[in-house]
Amino acid sequence: MNAKKILCLTGLTLAIGCSASAFAQMDVPEAVRVPDGHKVAMETVGVGQITYECQAKTDMPGQMAWVFMGPKAALNDRSGKQVGKYYGPPATWEAMDGSKVTGTQVAIAPAGDGNIPHQLVKANPAEGKGAMTGVTYIQRVATKGGVAPAKTCAAANEGERQIVDYQADYLFWANK
């Protein structure tokens, strides 16, 4: 392959890589955008399930609702290779190298009917050294599914658990 073709392919690869970060910020609601001064350190696709349990509402006696109990998902790179896992509570993103982060939700924004919301999480300092070291924010975008079950939650099925499939892109951000 000649030098001109290599240079063009390299430019195309850089353009695609740069546009992924720009896409992540431009196509999500402002509430879940990462503050300036950060760059994408790792992109993953989370594929898994969210567990809900039918429980009495604590603030509304006699009312029942599906309550989020926690996620369990594989974090895959764009080629489909597993690079980590996501589980909780507490919400924990763990790389295959053992490094992991937890965090505090900063904001959510609607992601369309039937989809869990977009989310922005401020990461706590990483445990262990590896892929999660230096992560400052986790952004959940491109969500599919994951909402509470449509099945009725009533006193008759209190304590019942339902598992719902979902998928989302998790973008891990670090300081520039």
Summarize the structure in words.
This protein is mostly beta strands. The chain is built from 1 helix and 8 strands, in the order αββββββββ. It has an 8-stranded antiparallel barrel with strand order 1-2-3-4-5-6-7-8. Residues 1-23 have low confidence and may be disordered.
The span between the termini is 34 Å
Average of the residue pLDDT scores: 87
Structural class: mainly beta
Low-confidence spans: 1-23
Succession of helices and strands: HEEEEEEEE
Q: How many strand units?
A: 8
User: Number of helical segments?
Assistant: 1
Strand order of the largest sheet: 1-2-3-4-5-6-7-8
Strand content: over 45%
Largest sheet: 8 strands, antiparallel, barrel
Radius of gyration: 19 Å
Helicity range: 10-25%
What best-fitting shape do the alpha-carbon axes yield? globular
What layout of secondary structure does this protein have?
Blueprint: H1 3-26, E1 38-56, E2 64-76, E3 82-87, E4 92-95, E5 100-109, E6 118-123, E7 135-145, E8 161-175
Antiparallel strand pairs: 1-2, 1-8, 2-3, 3-4, 4-5, 5-6, 6-7, 7-8
Features:
176 residues, mainly beta, 8-stranded antiparallel β-barrel, 1 helix, disordered N terminus
Summed up:
This protein has 176 residues and is mainly beta. The protein is 14% helix and 48% strand.
